[in-house]
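Structure in, sequence out. Go:
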């Protein structure tokens, strides 16, 4: 994500919160920092989903550890986004047409 896009994202997030609340502003800043870290790791990983590990005469393939870190950051972004009210969890009735009584 480019610098301009990160700036626009920050402005959009700030427009959706109570800007008098230091807690909400901190959440936006944390969210933006996580997005920045995610993008940096994503650039490093690139198309290298697997890496070759050499241990003496042994050589084997291993999942790139950056992918695990990206998954962790993604989970943090989702949780923080929910905490800020950016998205509704799956199955919620917010904007949906189904309710709890529709479950079998």
């Amino acid at each position: 994500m480019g610098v301009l896009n990160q700036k626009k994202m920050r402005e959009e997030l700030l427009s959706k919160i109570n800007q008098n609340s230091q807690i909400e502003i901190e959440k936006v800043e944390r969210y933006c920092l996580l997005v920045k870290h995610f993008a940096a790791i994503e650039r490093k990983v690139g198309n290298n989903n697997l890496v070759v590990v050499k241990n003496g005469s042994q050589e084997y393939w291993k999942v790139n550890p950056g992918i695990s870190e990206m998954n962790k950051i993604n989970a943090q972004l989702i949780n923080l986004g929910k905490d800020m009210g950016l998205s509704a969890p799956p199955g919620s009735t917010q904007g949906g047409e189904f309710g709890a009584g529709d479950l079998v």
